[in-house]
Write a structure and sequence with these properties.
The chain is an alpha/beta fold and about 425 residues long. About 30% of the residues lie in helices and about 25% in strands. The protein has helices spanning about 20-30, 50-60, 85-90, 100-105, 125-130, 165-175, 190-200, 230-245, 260-270, 305-315, 330-340, 370-380, 390-395, 400-405, and strands spanning about 1-5, 15, 40, 65, 70-75, 80-85, 105-110, 135-140, 145, 155, 180-185, 205, 210-215, 225, 250, 270-275, 280-285, 295, 320-325, 345, 350-355, 365, 385-390, 410-415. The strands form six sheets. Strands 22-23-1-24 form a four-stranded mixed sheet, covered by helices on one side. A four-stranded mixed sheet has the order 2-15-17-16. Strands 4-5-3-14 form a four-stranded mixed sheet, covered by helices on one side. Bound molecules: uridine-diphosphate-2(N-acetylglucosaminyl) butyric acid.
C-alpha cells in the first residue's frame, strides 16, 4: 500500500505548471463515442480516472492510443453498449457514456453507480431527461437499460444543477431529432469546454455557460482535435498550498477567469493574488484572516475546493463558517483534520472552524479525492510528519502532486510498502 509522507513547516517557493482538467477531459474523451474516425486530444492529464475512462471506451470497442499527454480515440467499430459495475463502481463519471451510446447505437446498459464517500449522488435527472427525449429506460439487476429507436428534442428543466447530467443530455441531444433546451443547466467551464468540442465536431449548441443551453440536433458529427482546459481545482489547491506555508509561488498554465470565486475568498483571507494571462502569483506574508464560505454551483465557490479551504481556515486568526450545499456528506476530512489538532465543529451542512490552533503531524487516511488533497495541505502546514494512507484517492485527480510540491520546496515523498 502506498503512503505519502509530508514533513511540515517548509515554505513553498517557485513555479508550478497546471495540468489539464480531469473533469473536462472525462466528458470530452467520452464525446468520441458520437462519431467515427480519429479524435485527437492533447493536454490530457495522466490520472487514474482518465485511465478508467480509456479502459471503459476500450471495452466498448474503441481504439485508444496514448503518447505522453496526447490521447487519440477512434470509436468506428463499437462492439458493446455496456458499462460494467466493475468500472462504474471505481468511477461514477462512467455514467457519461449513457447519453452518447444511446444517441449513437440506440442502446446503452450502464451499471447504476450507487452511493459514494461524499453522498448518495443519484442520477435520476440524467434518466428523467433521457426519458423526456424518448428513451425507454428500465432498472434491472443494478443496471440502467436504455433503448431509443431515435431520440427527439425536448424541453428539459433540471430540478438541481447537475454537471454530468447537463453533459450527458447535451451529448445525447447533439444527434437527436429537433431542438433540445436544457434549463437550469450547469455553467461550469468544463460544460463549456464540452460544448466547444461538440460544436467543433459539427454540433449546434448555443448558450453553454448560461443556465439555458439550446441544442439543435444534426444528422452526424465529425472527429475533433481538442486541447483540454487547465484544471481549476488543481490551481486552487496550489493557491492554498502557498497560503498554508506562507509561500510565494507562481502558478502557470492556468485560467484565472475560471477561479474568480476562489481568488476572491483567498484574497479576503489576506493572501496576495496577482493575476496574469494564464498565470497567478500567490504570496502569503501576513496572518490569515477568517472568511466564511458557502459552496454553490459555478460561478459560486466550488465544492471541490471546500476541504482545501477548510485547512486554510484552520490556520486563520478567528472563527469561520463553511456551508456545504452540494453534497450531504462532504465533511469526512474533518475527523482526520481534528486528529491533527484542528478545532472544527460540524452540524449538518455547516462546519465552524476555530482557527489558530497549531496543527501537528499525524497518521491520517485519505477518504476521497479532495479530502486527500486537504490532508496533504494540512501536512505541509503542520509541525512534524504526516503520513497519509490510501493515496490512490489522490491519484484519481492530481497529476504528480508530490513531484510538483517537491519542486516548490515541500518535503514530501511516496513510499510503497
Ligand atoms: N444530483 C441529483 N440527481 C442527479 C444528479 C445530481 O440529485 O441526477 C445531485 C447530486 O447528488 C448533488 C448535486 O446534484 O447533490 C450536484 O451533483 P452533480 O451531478 O453536479 O455532480 P457530478 O456531475 O456527479 C461533478 C464533478 C464532481 C463535482 C460536482 C459538483 C465530474 C466528473 N465530477 O460531479 O467532481 O464535485 O460535479 O461540482 O465532473 C471531483 O472532481 O472531486 C468531483 C467529485
Amino acid at each position: 500500500m502506498e503512503t505519502i509522507i509530508v514533513e511540515g513547516g517548509h515554505r513553498l517557493q517557485g513555479t508550478v505548471t497546471i495540468s489539464g482538467a480531469k473533469n473536462a477531459a472525462l466528458p470530452i474523451l467520452v464525446s468520441s463515442l458520437l462519431t467515427e474516425g480519429w479524435n485527437v486530444y492533447d493536454n490530457v492529464p495522466d490520472l487514474r480516472d482518465i485511465r478508467t475512462i480509456k479502459k471503459l471506451l476500450t471495452e466498448l470497442g474503441a481504439r485508444v492510443e496514448t503518447e505522453e499527454d496526447v490521447v487519440k480515440i477512434n470509436t468506428s467499430a463499437l462492439e458493446s453498449h455496456e458499462a460494467s459495475y466493475d468500472l462504474v463502481k471505481t468511477m461514477r463519471a462512467s455514467v457519461l457514456v449513457l447519453g452518447p451510446l444511446l444517441a449513437r447505437l440506440g442502446r446503452a446498459r450502464v451499471s447504476l453507480p450507487g452511493g459514494c464517500a461524499i453522498g448518495a449522488r443519484p442520477i435520476n435527472l440524467h434518466i428523467k431527461g433521457l426519458e423526456q427525449m424518448g428513451a425507454d429506460i428500465s432498472l434491472e439487476h443494478g443496471y440502467i437499460d436504455a433503448r431509443a429507436r431515435s431520440l427527439k428534442g425536448a424541453d428539459i428543466y433540471f430540478d438541481i444543477v447537475t454537471v454530468t447530467g447537463t453533459e450527458n443530455l447535451m451529448m445525447a441531444a447533439t444527434l437527436a431529432d429537433g431542438v433540445t433546451i436544457l434549463r437550469n443547466a450547469a455553467r461550469e467551464p468544463e460544460v463549456v469546454a464540452l460544448a466547444d468540442t461538440l460544436n467543433q465536431m459539427g454540433a449546434q449548441i448555443t448558450g453553454a455557460g448560461t443556465p439555458v443551453v439550446t441544442i439543435t440536433g444534426v444528422d452526424g458529427l465529425k472527429p475533433a482535435s481538442v486541447t483540454i482546459i487547465p484544471d481549476r481545482i488543481e490551481t486552487g489547491t496550489f493557491m492554498i498550498a502557498a497560503g498554508v506555508t506562507g509561500g510565494d509561488i507562481k502558478i502557470v498554465g492556468c485560467e484565472p477567469a475560471h477561479l474568480a470565486a476562489v481568488i476572491h475568498k483567498v484574497r479576503q483571507s489576506g493572501i496576495t493574488v496577482e493575476e496574469e494571462p494564464h498565470g497567478l502569483r500567490v504570496v502569503c506574508e501576513t496572518t490569515i484572516s477568517s472568511v466564511d464560505v458557502k459552496t454553490i454551483p459555478y460561478p459560486g465557490f466550488p465544492t471541490d475546493m471546500q476541504a482545501q479551504f477548510m485547512v486554510l481556515m484552520c490556520l486563520a486568526s478567528g472563527l469561520s463558517v463553511i456551508s456545504e450545499t452540494i453534497f450531504e456528506n462532504r465533511y469526512i476530512h474533518v475527523s482526520e483534520l481534528q486528529r491533527m489538532g484542528a478545532d472544527i465543529k460540524v452540524s449538518g451542512s455547516t462546519a465552524v472552524i476555530q482557527g489558530g490552533k497549531p496543527l501537528t503531524g499525524a497518521p491520517v487516511m485519505a477518504t476521497d479525492l479532495r479530502a486527500s488533497a486537504s490532508l496533504i495541505l494540512a501536512g505541509l502546514a503542520a509541525e512534524g510528519t504526516t503520513e497519509i494512507s490510501r493515496v490512490y484517492h489522490i491519484d484519481r485527480g492530481y497529476e504528480a502532486i508530490e513531484k510538483k510540491l517537491a519542486q516548490l520546496g515541500a518535503r514530501i515523498r511516496r513510499t510503497r510498502g
